Structure formats: structure tokens, C-alpha cells
Amino acid sequence: MTRFPFIAPAFCLLFAWAADVRAQSRPTEQPQSLENRAIPGTVPTPFLTFRDPVSRTVAVAGSWSGWTNQVPMKNIGGVWQLDMRTVPVSEGRHEFKFIINKRWEEGANRELFIKGNGLLVRPADIIVKALQETRNEVVAYLKTPLKGNEPVKVSFDSGIPVEKILRSTAREESGARGYLVTGPTLTFLFDPKVYGIVLEPGDSVAVAGNFNYWDGSGGKGHWSLNDSNQDGIWELAIPRDGLRKPANEPAFMFKYVINGSRWLTPPEDAINIVTDAGGNRNLLLDTREGGSSALKIITAEPIPLTTNHYIRIEGLAERDAWHIVSPYGVLDRMKSTKRLGAILNKEQQATTYRLFAPRAFSVELCIFDTPNYEVHRPVYKLLEPGERYPMWYDPEDGVWEITLLGLDTGKYYSYDVDGPQGPGEGFVDDAYIADPYMMAAAHAENNSIVIDMDETNKWFSGWTDDDWVTPEPQDMIIYEAHLRDLTMHPSSKVPPHLRGTYAGLLATIGTGTGLDHLKDMGVNMVEFLPLAEFNNKENEYNWGYTTVGYFAPEASFARSPLTGSQVFEFKNFVNEMHNHGFGVIVDVVYNHVGWPNLWAMIDRKYYFRLTPDYEYLNFSGVGNDFRTEAPMARRMIVESIAHWVREFKVDGFRFDLAELIDYETLMACKRAAESINPNIIMISEPWSFRGNHKE
């Protein structure tokens, strides 16, 4: 009998190798599509796939080649495929897009991650946030607890050398506890396994607590959790300081609700179970605690703000973890006391322009010969400015500026701001942006106008209301109105050319309508819907809650808006209102902004409250919640309030959805206004979809 050597181990290795080759020789996950934009590589694979039933040709281009080389894909069984091992692409993170039927797909860039062997691998989902706190410090907050002895390696995709890694461990029971605190973010976490239940397709999960009136319905999505990454954990992220609790309750309490009606009893092993006065068992929420393991990464060089950086963490999971670094504390440390906007220096006969844009890598001042920076008829065209000047950047305070000889009074101008691209960014390199500190706008969607606020002219000859004193609050009889509405109808007896304007309402004096009617009712204060520059098309009706210019009176209510007459017409309007016994209260909207969104194009991550995935928080219900607590956002708000009191002598303000304006900013507004007019009246709308602050 012939004997053969025992070769089972070699055979097993060969079998395993063959299985691995087979796994890498065919697609292993749902193809990408116009709807499916998930990062490929749930199972490591060399194949990038795409499905589109109407496509005749599909190609791929990406950041690995500067977007210049379009690599064709092959249609195999109705699925377009590309073996990434045949593409000269380096290890790491890359962005890409599909070119379908020779047309680039719309929307944001997709992203993929390549290992050294050419395989697509989706990163481990263990990083909640990576926040840049200082020029050379990043804190990465982790979903998984640190044991303390893992061989962790951290690197930056931009090659910035890491000098030191510090660890911060945290408690491990966040699943049972029901939430996680990571820096400025509070994340509600619902794990069905912790509760011993299985959710069915279509089920909904909401968090209810004393901070939202125990509303288990999800509050139209504001308090609904989602399992967006399909890891079985449902999440909802909100700002840590964004909760309000009833004044008579000592702490935040919550629980989870399934489908709006199934209230879940907290798990027995949760250490934060509390019982309320009614005997209900709830979960205690402490927003002050750390709650998350974290890595503090100290770099040997400053981390530039003008580009996006990704960190790569190896050693905490089977796969490497990647996450974009978000500017956070480092930006809030950048503050400036320089005067912003267009500043006329009459002594030196010069005009200085300044803009706070801390992460931009280029800002240009654009001066136009016309009020428009774009035209829509007969075809859309972006106009070229008559003059274009690069501005210089002060890295200490994030301010860009330029000084030009001559007083630019009456000139039309905008900024061209360019900055880093990537997730969550709003920079647009070919857009003109109005000045957030503009005194007047030719129109909400066009250029700013340089204004001399000390000027007198045919629209305003000077203040004559010296005898006017803002009434005491208890003596006020307030009437709320839309300025345009008071005179648009022919029954107002206002001449057609004045209807809907500042001058139109003054023209009702002596007619028995308008102000005469309010006087007959005993009204002595008129609270106007927003009068700051807001977005409206030509002859479009708008209540004004889409602010674009916080220092600029609304142009459509003026008679010569392209010359900036609205500034002086509004001064005259307040002057005459005072002379006829009426105080003026204006509705101001700082909880969100209108369109075009100047602040997003200047720095979206600085000016807005965002989720960890860079979506706008929307407790205002109108699409974007302004980050009023950001130092330079707060400064703009406070200075705009002082501007309306000092320059226009308004008698008060009604703050729209003031619950979304942080307390420190509200109090700073009050102090600034009262320093000019001690009798100023401040009215707060005390609610939002987040809660209220009536207590």
C-alpha cells in the first residue's frame, strides 16, 4: 500500500485562501444607488458597485486623482462594478462620485475607505465626535468604553504628527442608563436588547421627559430616535445645554415610548432609576457628567483651521475607526473687538471692510456698479464686480479686512468667501455673500450698500422727538401689526404709490384710518412684525421671519431702496410715530436665519447648532437653529439690538422663539438696550419645539 504524507493543514490553508479569493471575486453588499449612499465595505471587498436601471454608462471619479480621471464601470448582471484594486488609489479615506450617462450625479460627494490591500472597508462606528479644542488638541469621544490598556494608535490623514495620547475612561452602563454625554452633545440611546424587546419594521421610538411635557409622540420628529447606521441602537443627539425642566422639579427625568403609546419601564440594572411623586419609575438625566470614554490627542504642530482633517484610530476595534475633526472650542476662543462691516473713516477719508470668517482660506471684497450681483432674465448670469480686492487675515481673531482710500458711501458690495469642503460645510466658492453687518441691502438676494448713518437727506432731516419718553410697561397698550398690511388695501385711504411702505402708514394720519384708528382705540405702542431685512421676492407677501440683515431696515417698505433710503425713511418713521404718541416695538428673529443663508456660507459649523452628522437642529421648525451662544454670533446679536435703539430709537423688542436664544445672550441684549434707553421694553416668546422657559 502506498503511503501519502498527511497534508490536511496545508489543504485547510488552501481552502481558506480559496474561500477568501471567492469572497473577494464578487460583490458582497447592497450596491450603491441614487438612494443608497452608505459607505461601502460592510464586508471587506474590492468591488465598488452601483445599481441604476436606466443608466447606459457609469464611471467613477474621485479625490484620489484630483477628480480628473473617470474610470468606467462594467455592467455585470444589471449591477455596475469596478474592482478598486485596478485603480491607483492610496490607502485611507477618499471622496468620489458616479458619472451616469456622462453626467455627474448631484448632491454631496460620497466617501470610501481603502485598506493597503485594495479592499473597501467601512470604518468601525465607535467615535461619536472628534472636537478640536485648541490649536493642537483634539478630543475624540467614544461609543465603546476604554479598558485602559489597549495599544491605541492615532494618526491624521493630513499627516500632522501626534505627540501624545491621553485617555479618559467612563462608566460602561450607558445602554441601560439611556444616554451619553460627549462634550457639548447629549445623545439619547435606546437599545431594545437592554429592554428585552424586538422592534418591528415601522416601529417608532421617542424620548419623553419633564423637559418636553412628557410628550411620547415624538413632537413631530423633534424627539424621535433613529437607527441611522443600522447597528441596533436608536439615537437622538441634541445640544447638552438645550433642555429646560420645570422650576418645581429638581432634575431631568425621562423614559422611552414605542409607537407613541407603549411606555417602557426602565431596565432594572439602570443605576439612574428614580421614582417621581406619582410613583412612576423614570430615568434620571445628569447633563453635567462626562459619561463617555475619550482620547485627548495632542499634536506636535498646530492643526490648520482652513482645511478638514480626519483622525484614524487603530487598536480599539477589529477595523480602524475614522472620523472628521470638527472645530469646536478652538473657534470659540477666537474673538474680536474690531468693528465689523463697512466702516467710514471721515478723518482719514478711507473705508475699511471687515468680516469675521475664521476658517475661510480666501475672502475677497467685491464692489459692483449695480445693486445686483446676479440676473435671472433672459437667462441666469452671475455678474462680475467692477472691483475685486483680496482681503488680509488676522489669525489671532479670525477677521478679514481691507482699507480703501475714499469714502464709499452708496457703493454696492459683497464678499466672495472660500473655505474647506467636506461634510457639514457651507462654503460656496463662486457665490457672492452680503455683509452680515450691512446697514442696508439693495435686496435680500443681492448686494449690500455702504451707508453713512450720520447723514441727513430728503428722507430724514433730523430727530425732532425730544419730548418723547417710552411709556412705563404698566401704561403700555400694545397693538401688533404687519406694517405692509396696515395700508395695502384701498380702504386705508393711502395713495397707491405709498401703500405698504413706512411713509404709507404715516400718511394715514388725518384720514381716520391706520394710526388714527389705533389712536381712537387707546393704543400707544405698535409692535411690528419683523422689520429687519428679510427674504422676499418682488411683490411677494412675507411676514418677515426670514431675516437676512440684522442691522438693515427692510428695503421693500421704502420708496427708493436701491439708494438705501430705507435707513433714513425708517428713522423718519420712528421720529413721526413718537411725535404722534406711538412707541415702536420691533419683532426680531435670532433663533434662525433666512435665505440666502449668509452665515452658512461664511462658516456653517460656527454659526449653527448641528447634529453629530452635521444636519441642522430644527427646534425652531424653520430649518436651522442659530448658535446664539457662539461668542461672535452673540456679539452680532447684541450689537444689532443696540443699533436699533441707538440709530432708530425703537422702544422695544419682541424676541421670536426666545427659548432658543441662550440666556446669556438675552441678558446681554437687555443690558445693551437699557444702557441707551432705560425704559426699553423686552418681550420674550418663551417657547420652541424644544420646550419653554416661562418658569
Average per-residue pLDDT, rounded, comes to 88
Q: Figure out the total of helices.
A: 10
Helix content: 10-25%
Structural class: alpha+beta
* Rg (C-alpha, Å): 30 Å
Unreliable residue runs: 1-24
C-alpha geometry: globular
Task: Summarize the structure in words.
This protein is α+β, with helices and mostly antiparallel strands. The model is unreliable at 1-24 (pLDDT under 50). The chain is globular. Strands 15, 16, 18, 19, 20 and 21 form a six-stranded antiparallel sheet that branches. Helix 9 (631-648) packs parallel to helix 10. It is 14% helix and 29% strand. The termini are far apart. 41% of the residues are buried. The chain has ten helices and 45 strands.
Describe the structure concisely:
With 695 residues, the chain is an alpha+beta fold. It has ten helices and 45 strands.
Write the layout of secondary structure elements.
Blueprint: H1 8-24, E1 47-50, E2 58-62, E3 71-72, E4 74-76, E5 79-83, E6 92-100, E7 103-104, E8 110-114, E9 127-134, E10 137-142, E11 153-156, E12 162-168, H2 174-177, E13 179-182, E14 185-190, H3 192-195, E15 205-209, E16 224-225, E17 234-239, E18 252-258, E19 262-263, E20 273-275, E21 281-285, E22 294-299, E23 310-314, E24 321-324, E25 326-327, H4 329-332, E26 341-345, E27 350-356, E28 362-368, E29 374-375, E30 381-382, E31 387-390, E32 392-394, E33 399-405, E34 412-418, E35 440-441, E36 448-449, E37 478-481, H5 502-506, H6 515-520, E38 525-528, E39 532-534, E40 547-553, H7 565-579, E41 583-588, H8 598-607, H9 631-648, E42 652-655, H10 663-674, E43 681-684, E44 687-688, E45 691-692
Parallel strand pairs: 9-25, 37-38, 38-41, 41-42, 42-43
Antiparallel strand pairs: 1-5, 2-3, 2-6, 4-5, 6-7, 6-8, 9-10, 10-22, 11-23, 12-22, 13-14, 14-17, 15-16, 15-18, 18-19, 18-21, 20-21, 23-24, 26-27, 27-33, 28-31, 28-34, 29-30, 32-33, 34-36, 35-36, 39-40, 44-45
Helix pairs in contact: 9-10
